[in-house]
């Protein structure tokens, strides 16, 4: 199957805007149910139809901040793939965004990682039959050739609903063999699996998880730079995957 219809899931608008503007994608106000805060931007790049989805802003608690974490990410992805299924099914879903990186795995600020798999580090269910479900490891579609083409690193992305972490999280992140850490990847992969849509992540490092600086400070310092790096990387990713077959990635 040739890849001609791609969904790019990006949680935060600050991460998505440079890419959306660069490719001149237009808002589609009818894409998501009006009750949801999610946003969609659509257009065509070369021979590929693109749909960029974001989680929108918080209206439930009235804070107006970006909706982050697994609940909005899974819901937005599910609804987007469901919408496309009735029209033209997505050939590929790319989860793009920023992340924390582990220096023990060679990560540095600004590095681009493509995911080999995703897993959760904060779904601890101490019942034998539920333990693998809680971890929820899902393999990403193979993208070794793409990684070499754009000079990106490869690794597992571990997901949790907190920006910070404690000792037990650290243990599970190590168990997951994580190279990078985020708040959405495992949820987006889960929703993609439901719709049998191949998927992988493109993650730019904003902070060093196992470094000396507090994650929230380093994240805010580097978010703008990482968003620009994401904007310069994503068009290269789209150019590479479009019109290719999955086994050519």
From TrEMBL:
This is Nucleoside phosphorylase domain-containing protein. Gene3D superfamilies: Nucleoside phosphorylase domain (3.40.50.1580). The lineage of its organism: Eukaryota, Sar, Stramenopiles, Ochrophyta, Bacillariophyta. It comes from Discostella pseudostelligera. InterPro entries: MTAN (IPR044580), Nucleoside_phosphorylase_d (IPR000845), Nucleoside_phosphorylase_sf (IPR035994). Residues 6-237 form the Nucleoside phosphorylase domain.
